[in-house]
Amino acid sequence: MSAALRISGATLSGALLALCFVPFDQSWLVWGWLWLLLPLLWTVKSKRSRLRGFGLAYLAGFAFWAINLKWLGTVTWPGVFVFAGYLAIYFGAFGAFAARSANPWRETLPEAKSIPDRFRQAGRSLGYAALLGGFWCGLEWIRGWMLSGFGWNGLGVTFAKNLILAQNAEYVGVIGLSFLPVFFSAVVVQTARRFYQQSMKGGVKLLHWDFATALLVVMSAFTLGTIRLTSVTNQPKLEARALLVQQDIPQVAGQISWTPSEIVDGFVDLTEKGLAKVEEEAAERLQEADNDVPIPLRYPDLVVWPEACLPYWFEIIDGVPVGGPQMDSIVEYIGGLGNFTFVVGINEVVGADPIAEDSVSYNSMLVRSPEGKRESYQKHHLVYFGETLPDVQLLHDIYEKTAGVPFGGIDRGTNFEPIPMKLRGEDVEIIPSICFEDTVPRLTRKFVRKKPQILVNITNDGWFQESEGAAQHFRNSIFRCIELRRPMLRCANRGVTSIISATGGTIDPYTKQRRRLEDENGSHFHRGSLLASAYLLKDGRVTLYAAFGDWFAVTGLIVGLLWGLIGIIRSAQKRRASRAA
Q: pLDDT digit string (tens) for 327-341?
């Protein structure tokens, strides 16, 4: 095969993978994009097969990420290609491994004619497929923490619309789900080659036990997912009614288009109107009941505003966030509108002056109890080029030119304790997360305790305007609920405001209401409020993933590296033996 065809094929495979994600949503292609790439990697015939494999897979990765992250172009187009170039390295590492260490076609094996030979053939095929699947998961795990980490859009995220398979994230995390399409594709490609060879010889088509086993593995995942989807849905729960407020404030990079008074007045107005919906609902239910029996008002247990929506700084005094008179009056006014917990995004500073050189500032979440007690959570996972930058003047100059304002970084929080909350007399806890933290499973699992808990995420995807960035962010966040078996209240300024169940769904299992804030056309770029319920599992059990994290991906990485090391040692021994002879 010519080099041009190999390059074209590798690039096409990456483009096909990009079609699996928003905005294209052809998730079924995740089962077949490797059917094009793996034959290219396995037919590399060269002493430099690892390098050639790296190059081919790197092209696939670059094509994938350049298409998948095009929404970053709303902030910086050069950044799209730089970032895609970096993330493609992980594809390249997979290609080098597949072309050499995990290449089942490196040796020409005799045709299997006896049953023991067929078993060995099937075992060999499954072994290489498992190696490749595990190593891919390991590379996604490294990508999730290297250089602060960007774990978005692994292969497992494509199962966000297939909630049956997605339930297995409870055991192996969303990264572990990526094993299935890689494993299955590797078996399919090997089976297809043997079938073709048999056809060319005119022989009897043999039963391909490895293909049957791969199907069995996928069907087992479906079966287990079905069982868990049903059992989790039917577990005893506590209802938490919530009012989520979204203004859909436009912005260009870091520049917000509205004035501080417009922002505050808008949130207050939407909150008052949202609370008024409670009385409207009660009136509608009374009319439907057609009797004079009073209908109880179902006021929210939580009112949530999005990330950093209050335009002024709060000072941390004796561990309590205190704003100026205007900000404190707003927090107390909203908190006084009902017997609910108020959650709002704020900016915090240690010391009264956020501009001072020795100041410590945070992107924070303020939680006010119905009794008026305030607690705050400071964001841990900071976003490069948004909240933190290396101390390199060139990078700061690029930021200022792009955003139109000088870069002002923030500090990293250190607390991993959930926030206690009373839910109609029950002791529950809030697992806080801000912005992209709901896409960082290794962080959210640190807050899990054996009691009823609810994830609360406040975010702002307005940086990326009306692109698919917000929808991709939402798809990645769904898996935190499944991994931890905790529902999520997700409140965005401009993005996807929604309530997600412990099984990853947005449909209320009792009312069948779609718990997403959308306009009449189904767009989440919408100003308004969402009044709906989340359901906390009463037993608060700790899942396998919450307890042990990405054990599956790390195991796959270690096994793959050991296998590659053994191959290198064997190759060196063969070369020494050849020279000695």
A: 999 999 999 999 999
